[in-house]
Design brief:
The complex is a heterodimer of chains A (about 140) and B (about 140).
Chain A: H1 2-31, H2 41-63, H3 69-83, H4 87-98, H5 102-134
Chain B: H1 16-47, H2 56-75, H3 84-97, H4 101-112, H5 116-144
Helix pairs in contact in B: 1-2, 1-3, 2-3, 2-5, 4-5
Classes of the chains: A mainly alpha (about 140), B mainly alpha (about 140).
């Protein structure tokens, strides 16, 4: 029970930080001189960097002696989970299609997953190496 | 939340209320994702006795969250300055409830384990389900209002 509570508190803390970071970056991109109204580069960058970070965290947590509970709940489920978003990506793709920009929607979809999966892989490799170099 | 509504020019500067709401709704979204995602994940994988561990939990929260974002988008007109409720629900709650990083890590694992069928299934069901749920949320608002 106590373990569950601390787990939940770490997730809540990471989740609020992740949501704030995402909202801040999205707002900044919208107000930037080169606004991201055509290309949603803020969401793209957030999702790819979050995938990298989660790949790294999962690799580190799996190899950490204590099981990496804190890292997993605060950094993984909380921060990375809340920082990255799937719903906004869908909204953006639907908006591209309704504006007749089909190729852009397909390119956005494909590049998000290609880069996201690639970033998760690089993050995981890096997390493993870091851990083994320390031992 | 969505395009065209966030960071409206009239809404510059850090509003304390906005920061508080996004943080609170963001932590609520993360907690619900953990709770219901975990529940759906373990229940369905146990029921199916699957050895493959399909990420049902992530699929569930992503689909539900996309539906909620569709409802939120339908409720608040994109041209008006975004009211706090829309930012709290869209950027805070839906953004935090849904996740891309877990999906990317799961897809990467399927690829490295050479489970290409699972990879394809997970990617296509997530995408089709997410977009359909978003459109359904938009349509639901139009029908009700």
């Amino acid at each position: 029970m106590r373990k569950d509570l601390s787990h939940a508190l770490w997730i809540a803390a990471g989740g609020s930080l992740g949501a704030l970071a995402r909202h801040g970056l999205e707002s900044a991109a919208r107000n930037a001189p080169l606004g991201d109204n055509l290309l949603p580069y803020a969401t793209f960058g957030i999702n790819v960097s979050g995938a990298f970070l989660l790949g790294w965290i999962m690799a580190r947590a799996a190899r950490s002696p204590g099981g990496g509970d804190w890292l997993r709940s605060f950094g993984g489920i909380g921060f990375c989970g809340a920082f990255t978003t799937f719903s906004t990506m869908n909204l953006e793709m639907v908006e591209m299609v309704t504006h007749g920009r089909w190729p852009l929607a397909v390119a956005y979809f494909a590049s998000s997953f290609l880069c996201g999966i690639g970033a998760a892989w690089v993050g995981a490799r890096w997390g493993i190496q870091k851990r083994e170099a320390l031992q | 939340m969505g395009r065209g509504t966030l960071g409206h020019p009239e809404k510059r500067g850090p509003a304390v209320k906005e920061i508080f709401l996004v943080a609170a709704m963001g932590s609520l979204g993360a907690l619900l994702r953990w709770h219901f995602g975990g529940y759906v994940h373990s229940t369905l994988n146990r029921a199916l006795a699957s050895k493959t561990e399909f990420p049902f939990g992530t699929l569930f929260v992503n689909t539900i969250g996309s539906f909620f974002l569709g409802v939120t988008t339908g409720l608040f007109a994109p041209e008006s300055a975004p009211p706090l409720a829309s930012v709290a629900l869209g950027a805070g709650f839906c953004g935090s409830l849904t996740t891309f990083s877990t999906l990317a890590v799961d897809l990467q694992r399927f690829l490295s384990e050479r489970r290409f069928w699972m990879f394809f299934l997970c990617l296509s069901v997530s995408t089709v389900g997410g977009i359909a749920a978003f459109l359904l949320g938009l349509a639901a608002v139009r029908i009700v209002s």
